[in-house]
Every structure is written in C-alpha cells, then in structure tokens.
Batch of 2 targets.
Target 1
Amino acid sequence: MRLTDFRCYAALDLELDPTPVALYGANGAGKTNLLEALSFLVPGRGLRSAGAEGVARKDASGPAEAWAVFAEMETRDGEVRLGVGARNGGRRETRIDGEPAPQGELARLVPMIWLTPAQDRLFAGPRADRLKFFDRLVYAADPAHAEAATAYDKVRTRRQRLLDEGQADPAWLNALESEMAGHGVAMAAARLDALIRLQGEIDARPEGAFPQADLALDGAVEADLADGLDAGAAEDRFAAALRDGRRRDGAAGRTLTRGPHRTELVARHRDKDQAAGDCSTGEQKALILTLALAQARALARQGGVAPLLLFDEACAHLDAPRREGLAREILATGSQAWLTGVERILFEPFAERVQYFEVDAARVERSA
Ligand SMILES: Nc1ncnc2c1ncn2[C@@H]1O[C@H](COP(=O)(O)OP(=O)(O)OP(=O)(O)O)[C@@H](O)[C@H]1O
C-alpha cells in the first residue's frame, strides 16, 4: 500500500502480508487516516464521508495539489493494482492495473466492510444512518445494489426539484417516477435477499461473544415484495404511490412518499428480547459486529474472497471476553481486518496471528 499526500501522510510505503493488521498509537497519530485511505478503494466518499476534495494533505502553504492511494491486492479478479486519487481539488480518478477505469468497477473487485466510532450508537441514532450501514453491507455482496441506489437517488432528486418548482409536466414526472420505481424495486429486492442471507448466517452461529440479532426491514416496497408481489406489480404500485404523493412531496420539499429511501432496518437483541436501540453502547457495538462479521462470513463463503474489514476502534467498548471473541471471529473469516486502538494490549487475543504496526506522528513502523 502506498499513500501520497493523503491526510497526514506525505509519502508512505507499507509492505503487508495477508493477515490482519493491528495499528496502535496515541490519539492523532494517523491510524484512522490509514483506514480512510483504504476506504477510497471502493466507490463513495470514504469512511469519513469526506469525499475526494477533502483528503489532500494540508500544511501551512495550503492543500497538496494531488493525493493518491495505491494498493496491490487480492480481489475477485485475482491480484490487481488499484489506484485512486484526485488533482487540484477535482474529481476522483480511478486506475485498475494502471488503466483509467470507472469508479463503479472497484465495487465489483473489492468487498469491504467498515465500522467507525461514529456508528457506536447506530441503533439509537437516525434512521438514515442505519439504512446507510445496512446498504453498505449489501453493496459488499452485491455491487449492482450500489448502482441502483445511486441511480435512484439521482432520479429522486430530479423529481423533487421539479415538484419544488411547482410547474412540472405530468408526462415528464411519469417518466421519472417509473424510473424511480424500477431502481427502487431492484434496491428493495437486493436488500431483502441480503437480509435473508445475513439472518441465516447469524442463526447458524451459536450465541458466543456477539449476540444473536433478529433483523427486519420496514419499508413499503420491501413489504410488497415480501408479500409475494412480483417485481413488475411492485413497480406499478410504487409508481402510483409517487404519482398520488406529488402534491404532498412538493409542499413538503422532500420525498415523503414511502419508498426505499425511507426504509428502516429493525434489529432486536434476541437473548434480551429488546429493541437494539434500547441496548447499552457496548451491546449495540456488539450487535453491529454481529452483523458485520456475519456478512464477512457470508461473503467469504459466497465469493471466495474474504472482504477487507476496516474496524476503527472496534475494541474500545468491548470487555475482555468480547475482545477475545472478536479475534476468534475475524481469524475464522480469513479476512484482512485492519484494527486500530490506542494500545497494543487491546490486540493481545490475536497473539502472533496479526501484524503489528506502531503509528506515531504519521510514521508507521512494523513491530515484532
Ligand atoms: N488533510 C490533512 N492534512 C494533514 N493532516 C491532517 C489532515 N486531515 C487530518 N489530519 C491530521 O491527521 C492526524 C491523524 O488523524 P487520525 O484520525 O488518523 O488519528 P488517529 O490515530 O486515528 O487518532 P484517534 O486515536 O484520536 O482516533 C490528526 O492530527 C489530524 O489533524
């Protein structure tokens, strides 16, 4: 992995083997920035949602002209050289084996799952954050879901703009709504499919360090599909709901019509028979890990390539038995997990099966 002018790193060159990576060091040392760099190897704005324009290294003379992240990695297409970067605050560029490529290609090559401290109380926080987290799990297994979701949001924004302006041509709105319905039903179907697999994976694992969870999706289109409506009928129904909702959506200035943008991920802690949102911070963190690890297992089984796991401060709220459980579960997936923590001792349960790096003021040193 090589970084050029990314966040606090002017230049970094890391040689790694495929085992998990434990990064330890003081606050502000540069641990999360390494995970963020890797998160740009899939489409999107990275794990801090900063986007390509926000990550160039800054010093007293201002931001660097260009930044880049380069990695040689095992992907679904075998060993591939991936490069991403941007120049002069511009759009992000992608290279695959040295050739320019569309960003979307990355989703197909590299399954990736990340967890950050910002998600610690995911189940008690805003609905949209939960859905985003779940959608990312779905993307890791089904890259087409990311494309459908992006396309859906684009059309939804266009329709909303027309409604906000108040003088839209009904035929034009019909066309946009039918496009929204097509992408929306594809999204809902991908989510349901992923949910069933994920739940199966969770159920197959005995209750251990991480709690069993019962998952459901509360969404209008998901409900239609779960009730057995075929895709065509579900699209017609959703398009009709959008048509009926025009006046209300226009008055509200946002899409109140129930569609895949308003779906809720419902999770319960099975053993406690409690809504995940009512669980303690540590229990919520454990539940999030239940989901992420279950998806990692499903992916490793399904695609042959274990996903890259970026777990920022995952150990912070975990007690010693759960930290041991985390090590066991990660090692069982065969994933290269990248873990951060302020102290090396947090990774003790991995023993010799992890590569240690000490991070200190943007210097990264391998340690025995
Ligand atoms: N664009 C940038 N240019 C230069 N330095 C940056 C830039 N963005 C962030 N930094 C700095 O990078 C440093 C490391 O940040 P990072 O989030 O990686 O730390 P960390 O080791 O994960 O810390 P913590 O344990 O507190 O989470 C911070 O001091 C931050 O101010």
Target 2
Amino acid sequence: MIRFLDVRKSYRVGGREIPALQPFNLDIVDGEVFGIIGHSGAGKSTLIRLINLLERPSGGRILIGDTEMTSLPEPALRAQRRRIGMIFQHFNLLASQTVADNVAFPLRLAGERDAAKIHARVGELLERVGLSEHAGKYPSQLSGGQKQRVGIARALANRPEILLCDEATSALDPQTTAAVLDLLTAINRELKLTIVLITHEMDVVRRICDRVAVLDAGRIVESGTVADVFLHPQHATTRRFVNEALPEEAASTQAPPMQVGGRKLRLTFRGATTLSPVLSRVMRESGVDFNLLAGRIDRIKDLPYGQLTLALEGANTDTALAALREAGIEIEELP
Ligand SMILES: Nc1ncnc2c1ncn2[C@@H]1O[C@H](COP(=O)(O)OP(=O)(O)OP(=O)(O)O)[C@@H](O)[C@H]1O
C-alpha cells in the first residue's frame, strides 16, 4: 500500500509559497493500476514525484508498506527508491548509450558488476518488452514506442514493486499508445506490481486503470473505481474529461435532445447485465414504449458496459423502472 496521510505541497519561489497540492489523504492498493488525471498545472507531476520523494512534501507523511518514506535518512531512501521504477513522457534515455546499456544502467548503479549477470538480465528484459533485436541500437534509431519500451525495460531492471508512469504515452500516436498500454497491463498482471500513472487523457484511464483520482487545481475532487467515476462522474472537471474521451454521438448520452416527450432516463448496464435482453423483456411485459435518444456500448478495462438514454411513455413506467433496477440496471432520471 502507498499511503498519503494529510500530505500537502507548496513550492517556494522568490520567498513566496506557491501551493501545488492542498492537504489530502490517499491510499493506493498493492497490485492495482491507479490513475491520476488532471489538466496542466493541476499537480499531477508533483503528486507522483512525492511517491519516490523526488519532491519532498511540505507537510504530512508518505508510507510505502510499513516504511515511512518521509522519515528516512538519505542512504535508506536511496535503497527504498530501488523498489520504485519510473518512466517518463520523453523517455529520458541516454543518447550516447545503446539500448542494452540503457537497460543495464540501473543494474550497474545498484552495484551489479558481474557482466554475465547483467547480460542475462538485460536479455530477459528486452525480450519482455519485445526489443531483443534492437539491443545494439542507439535511442535515435528507435521509434517513440520503441524508446518507451526501453524506458519500461530500464524501469523494471531492479525488479521494483511500484512503477510510476509520468505521462508515459502523451508523446505517442494512438496506435503506439494502445500497444504501450497493453504492455503495461501485461506487466501489471504478470509481475503483480503496482502501477501509478498520471495523464490528462480519460481514455488512458479507461483502458488500463482500476481506480482513479481526479485532480483539479491542487485538490482531489473525485476518486473511485474507474467504472464508477467514468459512468457516473460527479464533478464538473470529471464530466469534462469523460466527455473528451467519448465520440460526439456518445457524449450526447450526457446531454440528450430535450425536445422529445416522456420521462428521460439514463440506463447503465455493467458486466453481466449487458449480456441478457432485460430491457426488451421488461418493456414488453410492462407495455411501456421507449424512444432511444442516445447510446454507447464499450469496455472499461475488462468490464463491458452499455449506457442508453431513453424517453419512456406509458402508464406503467414506475413498474418498468422497478423491474429494471431489480435486474441490476442503474437508472438516473434526467431533467
Ligand atoms: N519546481 C517548481 N517550482 C515552483 N512551482 C512549481 C514547480 N513545479 C511545479 N510548480 C507549480 O505547481 C503547480 C502544479 O504543477 P505540476 O507540474 O505538479 O502540475 P501538472 O498537473 O503535472 O501539470 P503538467 O501536466 O503541465 O505537467 C503548478 O502551479 C506549477 O506551476
């Protein structure tokens, strides 16, 4: 568990305190993929860099497992940092070193001198990220996606328990982004490490995160499972992020056409409820008619979901809604 207890952070610039993060508490559970989403300047980089104490908090305590990071002297902190790998938006590779040497770098830094051991571990890591053929190349000879794979291999070299991803796919095109996110998902599952990522794209969160916190001007304004936050966003900032992640026609589920008569409702189907024809059965049995105003069927990580906006007409709408709720469908009445 990564635990933030009443943590706050401000920067001192020219004798003035600039607040970056208001006091917050947050727990990140072992083995999960945790996303932190926010606009530019919201405090995402500050928050993620507090985990390995690249930034020191101005108040509060940060624990990883039983270790209080904030009270460690420098040598002990260096040892703890080996439990944490990090990848970056611009990859931060050493341009004058080959792919293999970039990946070997943290092993050497940790004191490994046995060339055969280093060679074997680098080979293993490059195979894991699909770059075995490229060991002797230099970063300038690689695509963006390949560079990030080198970054991932390097971050995993010392078998960390936590991987921090600082806008890891922001410099990549959509297809390369998808491949890198798939790789991170596979690593999370196979190596059982905790991933904390920061992003300004809800789609990244939707694809790979289990839980998410939404940061707005230094405050966590919303947090929860990605399914809950994505399907029922509460804060205006969260709603904006969700709408940005949806194509135009699906975004209309959030704001359906108002000129249609009847009771307007948004129905959310998750997991198993997407698999049975509950809607048609309930409507047939209750004799209620519906007009379909907008809809979307997609996945949140592994969870299939559907969200439909309907206008209902008929005498038995309350009975129909009770039957839908009974079947596990979430219903929101729209104005
Ligand atoms: N080293 C620093 N010195 C002074 N102020 C800083 C420093 N780093 C960040 N800040 C300020 O702290 C606030 C949060 O910045 P931070 O970089 O954490 O946000 P962010 O959400 O990561 O933004 P971006 O997506 O643009 O990187 C901003 O107001 C920023 O100007």
